[in-house]
Amino acid sequence: LMLETFLAGRNDGWSIEGLHLSGPDLDHADLARLTVGAFSGDRLAEVSFEGLDVAARKALVKLARFRFADLRLPAADDLRRALPAALAGAEIDPSSLAPTFGGLALEGLDLAEPGVPSLSLARLRLDLSGHLRAVPTAVDFVVDHLVVPAGLADAEGRRTLAGLGYDRVDVSAALRFAWNAATRDLVVDTLSLGVADLGSFTASARFVDVPRALFLRPEAAETAIAGIRLAALRARWSDASFLDRLVRHLAREEKTTPARIRRRLADDVARELAGIRDPARRRTTIEAVRRFLANPTSLDLEMRAKAPVPLPEVLEASDDLFDLAERLDFFVSAAR
């Protein structure tokens, strides 16, 4: 009876404005608006709030907006079957009853202690879809401008950042991928990590023969990946003054010229890359890296294998980059 009452429940949602708390160790905790969206026995549309402002003795927190969206509970028929079975002592598959959610987002976060520089985050967004039971098959994740002041680092970290001319680290990142049930392809459209005034890494990839079991039984992923193959891979490092800053810093430390530091770095890299087995690949890779060091803009890597490569082979070769280069037929180039 209680289960049926819960499943039959409906509510259009509600909101509260102007919440305020205070106490002995809490100067204030204010919330401009709290909203709970429409909910029923199988879904909660959202929980969100705006204008959070907390000032405690040892912490200051501000958050412009937060939203948690589309919480979906197990299907009614699954609950009706599972509850009597559990009461009878039968074993229940937890994944069949796990809830899912569609995403969350926050904007305008500031965290600090009194007298200490604040850590801030402009935006975070996570969207999930295409669930197989509790596991999403499509993910879109973005972090914009996570700013960490240099003053929060330890003494050695502050010296290193100051030597490179940074008074903060401003990080942005993104990940977007989706699995296609019809083709069994998993496409990573975007994988990126960037730091303002330093540089950014971006990559994309396509995997084929990705089985449904990878999502339905994550605990058996090792078995599921045995048949997956890597069909495409591209990556790029785009420099945004980091290499120039590093060269100038090393030149000051060693009391020499930036030109000499660049030549030494180029020679060091050439020695490291001498282990590339294919002579043509070795030559073009060293030339590309030398060009990048001389004029740091972007360095690209592309997989040119004629056929998809089994993922276990890629993982096996990951400890030996030269072996990996041969298996994936990597080609490296630098912008002119």
Protein described:
- By secondary structure, the protein is α+β, with helices and mostly antiparallel strands.
- It starts with a helix and ends with a strand.
- The strands form 2 sheets. Strands 2, 3, 5, 6, 7, 8, 9, 10, 11, 12, 13, 14, 15 and 16 form a 14-stranded antiparallel sheet that branches.
- The chain is flat.
- The longest helix has 16 residues, at about 280-295.
- β7 (about 105-110) and β8 (about 120-130) form a beta hairpin.
- It has 10 helices and 16 strands.
Q: Radius of gyration over alpha carbons?
A: 26 Å
- Return residue spans where pLDDT drops below 50 for at least 5 consecutive residues: none
Strand content: 35-45%
In whole angstroms, how far apart are the ends? 73 Å
Order of helices and strands: HEEEEEEHEEEHEEEHHEHHHEEHHE
**Overall 3D form:** flat
Mean pLDDT across all amino acids: 90
Number of separate helices: 10
Class by alpha and beta content? alpha+beta
Number of strands: 16
| Main sheet characteristics | 14 strands, antiparallel
Oligomeric assembly: single chain
What level of helicity do the residues show? 25-40%
Write a short abstract of this structure:
The protein has 336 residues and is an alpha+beta fold. The protein contains 10 helices and 16 strands.
Which tags fit this structure?
single chain, about 325 residues, 14-stranded antiparallel beta sheet
Task: Describe the SSE topology.
Elements: H1 2-8, E1 10-11, E2 14-23, E3 26-36, E4 39-40, E5 43-56, E6 60-72, H2 76-87, E7 103-112, E8 119-129, E9 138-149, H3 155-163, E10 168-180, E11 185-195, E12 199-208, H4 213-216, H5 221-224, E13 229-239, H6 242-254, H7 258-272, H8 279-294, E14 298-303, E15 309-310, H9 311-317, H10 321-328, E16 330-334
Helix pairs in contact: 6-7, 7-8
